[in-house]
From TrEMBL:
Ranges for domain Inhibitor I9: 61-155
Listed name of the protein: Peptidase inhibitor I9
Any Pfam family: Inhibitor_I9
Xref: InterPro entries: S8pro/Inhibitor_I9, S8pro/Inhibitor_I9_sf
Organism: Cytobacillus firmus
């Protein structure tokens, strides 16, 4: 399996696990949001495993608030809202344009970063690298939903029934 496919699979697993958390107690994102929200007045959530005080470069994945076009159309249909695929694609593209404007601000302030990939189909967002202590500057963006560390994880291979005995 290629490295790119592994990252996408890991990302989808992280998103699935994050979406399956219970709502009775606070999850790590909610706790972090209270801290970040007081400082930044942002609805974006940063994974608490990212040390925002470090000046080390960190690879991150940024999830935008707008769903990928096909998913947005299906969710809208489920809610009884009419949304064309073309309009949903325009919204996704608008997210990316807004984010590029934020990158222009980073350029003006001489903040180093490198955008690795942009995602628009199965996931709406970008992967990039930047100093961890500069991630806070991204939180002012109205298009960002969550920021995850971009790290590779290893899944254990499935156990064959014959090996269990």
């Amino acid at each position: 399996m290629s490295s790119k496919k592994c990252y996408v699979i890991v990302l989808l697993i992280v998103m699935f696990i994050g979406g399956c958390q219970g709502t009775k107690g606070e999850n790590a994102y909610q706790k972090e949001d209270k801290v970040v929200g007081k400082k930044m007045h942002s609805s974006a959530k940063v994974d608490p495993s990212i040390d925002l005080s470090s000046n080390q470069y960190v690879p991150i994945i940024i999830e935008f608030k707008t769903k990928p076009a096909k998913i947005a159309v299906l969710e809208a249909k489920e809610k009884g809202i009419t949304l064309t695929l073309e309009e949903a694609k325009r919204q996704v593209e608008q997210n990316h344009q807004t984010f590029r404007k934020l990158l222009t601000v980073l350029d003006e302030k001489n903040i180093p970063y490198k955008v690795k990939h942009t995602y628009k189909t199965a996931f709406n967002g970008v992967s990039m690298e930047m100093p961890a202590n500069e991630i806070k500057r991204l939180l002012s963006s109205s298009v960002i939903s969550k920021i995850y560390p971009n790290k590779q994880i290893q899944l254990d291979p499935p156990i064959n029934p014959s090996e269990q005995m």
